[in-house]
TrEMBL record:
Residues 75-253 form the Uracil-DNA glycosylase-like domain. The keyword DNA damage applies. SMART domains: UDG (SM00986), UreE_C (SM00987). Keywords: 4Fe-4S, DNA damage, DNA repair, Hydrolase, Iron, Iron-sulfur, Metal-binding. InterPro entries: UDG_Type-4/5 (IPR051536), UdgB-like (IPR044147), Uracil-DNA_glycosylase-like (IPR005122), Uracil-DNA_glycosylase-like_sf (IPR036895). This is Type-5 uracil-DNA glycosylase. CDD domains: UDG-F5_TTUDGB_like. Residues 1-16 have a biased composition (Basic and acidic residues). Residues 1-27 are annotated as: Disordered. Gene3D superfamilies: Uracil-DNA glycosylase-like domain. The keyword Transmembrane helix does not apply. Pfam families: UDG.
Length: 271
């Protein structure tokens, strides 16, 4: 008996939510987007981001002093059979970090959801909180970094730690996913290695981000391929300076929807 106990190998400890290896260990084990969306908010793998998101929830903006902030990682949002994905950067400290839903409660989200509504991909033009009745049609919105970062700037290490969540999300979307609209250079650079790892073939040299960039990535597994489209991020600065106008955003979303096969969305084009 003592020999058996001596020779028995201890079971490897699985990383907990506060360990840097938690996303890499947990994400591949999730069998559905519902499971993924439930698991992401438990993550505490990046200490700097945990501290910042929780500090923002304590030191609230005056306009939101009565809010009970979400203050956790913000999961993606949209149907599990989406043909089009939209990839941003990270939640805003007093936007998604407050409301618990990506691109909700901040100026960038106001512009994005209005454009989605205008091209028939969202049920309403204005969104304020989880449970406000919003539905997305054939579209899922997600992020390469799920926690609000200081100054909206995640570090490369934080981006890489969070990457397994995005990788698993796209893998689960793979059967129906046909196009991705990427909002900003950070999301573009974060997404490319994920797509390559998932079996979509990147050209050499790798495609460079730019508004209006468009590339078809062949599928090494024999699928129909994936269209990748670049769009400036609908940040306050980009919108106020006219670098990105609502019309430009609508045009890119409309192109993405057409390439994804969403030619007849439930809501008619309003612009």
């Amino acid at each position: 008996m003592r020999d058996e106990q001596r020779n028995r190998r201890p079971e490897a400890r699985r990383p907990g939510p506060g360990d840097p290896g938690y996303p890499a260990q947990r994400a591949p084990r999730l069998a559905s987007l519902a499971e993924l969306d439930a698991a992401v908010p438990d993550c505490r793998a990046c200490p700097r981001l945990v501290e910042w998101r929780e500090q923002a929830a304590r030191v609230k903006r005056r306009a939101f002093r009565d809010w009970d902030y979400w203050a956790r990682p913000v999961p993606g949002f949209g149907p599990p059979d989406a043909a089009l994905a939209i990839v941003g950067l990270a939640p805003a400290a007093h936007g998604g970090n407050r409301t618990g839903r990506v691109f909700t409660g901040d100026p960038s989200g106001d512009v994005l959801y209005a454009a989605l509504y205008d091209v028939g991909l969202a049920s309403q033009p204005t969104v304020t909180h989880r449970g406000d009745g919003l539905e997305l049609y054939g579209v899922r919105i997600t992020l390469p970094v799920h926690c609000a970062p200081p100054q909206n700037r995640p570090t490369p290490a934080e981006r890489d730690t969070c990457r397994p969540w995005l990788a698993r999300e796209l893998e689960l979307l793979r059967p129906t996913l046909r196009a991705v609209v990427v909002l900003g250079a950070f999301g573009w650079q974060a997404l490319l290695p994920v797509l390559a790892g998932a079996g979509w073939q990147l050209p050499r040299p790798r495609p460079v981000f730019g508004h209006g960039a468009r590339v078809l990535l062949p599928d090494s597994r024999g699928g129909p391929g994936l269209y990748l489209l670049g769009c400036y991020h609908p940040s306050q600065r980009n919108v106020f300076t006219g670098r990105l106008t609502p019309a430009m955003l609508r045009e890119t979303l409309r192109e993405g929807a057409e390439l994804a096969g969403l030619r007849q969305p439930p809501a008619a084009d309003r612009r």
